[in-house]
Write a structure and sequence with these properties.
Number of domains: 2
InterPro entries: Bdr, FAD/NAD-bd_sf, Ferredoxin-NADP_redctase_2
Number of strands: 17
Cofactor: FAD
CATH superfamily of the largest domain: FAD/NAD(P)-binding domain
Strand content: 25-35%
Radius of gyration: 21 Å
Helix content: 10-25%
Keywords: Flavoprotein, Oxidoreductase
Number of helices: 8
Pfam families: Pyr_redox_3
Structural class: alpha/beta
Protein name: YpdA family putative bacillithiol disulfide reductase
Distance between the termini: 21 Å
Order of helices and strands: EHEHHEEEEEEHEHEEEEEHEEEHH
Length: 327
Amino acid sequence: MKDVIIIGAGPCGLSAAIECQRQGLSSLIIEKNFIVHSIYLYPTNMQFFSTTPLLEIGDVPFTSPNDKPYRHEALVYYRRAAAQHGLDIAAYEEALSVLPQEDGSFIVHTRNKRGEEQHHSAANVVISTGYFDQPNMIGIPGEELSKVTHYFGEAHPYSGMKVAVIGGSNSAVDAALELIRVGAKVDMVYRGSSISENIKPWVRPIFESMVQKGNITLHLESRVTEITPSSAVVTAGSGETRIIDNDFVLAMTGFRPSRTLLASAGVLMDDSLDKPAFNPSTMESNIPGIYVAGVIASGRNANEVFIESGRGHGKLIADHIISKRLS
């Protein structure tokens, strides 16, 4: 039996494993994809908002020639940090449920890439699964069409195409700017009266310039209400509708966490925010021995927890596990 099983090999899960290791606790990370899969899903050319020191874990230096590193640099860094600390990671193994036992321990049921089901036991479980697997669906006719995606990797496939971008956050703005660089015609549709206030400050003036020059057509206080094979129907707040011809739709509408593992363990959830009940000073949920780490702790409000804040959850958890042993 392990002292701790950590579900999710994102930066916060890796940090939790390192902190447990430092306290002499045995741990296993279970990851249904591969290490820092969420970062892998970021746009290929994405630049972080944070500087390298704020992304570091386990006292492993993150060096970069850039003040704010890029996605590919982060992938290399987190692989190196995991290897340097010799973390035990079961990759391509999906956690299916977390079942409390009468003695206070837990059984984690998993399925590996060969379809084989396995059971792992631990005295404590940390759920650090992130939220990239479940996009926020708009719920409109045509959203299921193959021309629609909630993920943006890179702009090259859209070269010379007409693309509607739904959203006004950093992901939507970054996608729009990359698209126009490859000659795409971009319509951007956002329900707000202006794009998000949280847009990267070095990106905002570039985006605004592209809008002013007509390279990006911005539809504010509007929403896409239907998608057809050749167009999108945009409805303004006034009720006026217009048809936008397009070849593809990028729905940059964000993501939400999965409740499955938390629910299987009996963790209480806020139904309106998908936010688990936990003590912020220890990260322990209402179920003793079940902890949350990283963005899963923020529920639907993904802007509440970032790598720079979530990486500290592991120390709170490890300290609490040791304190319980000593009490």
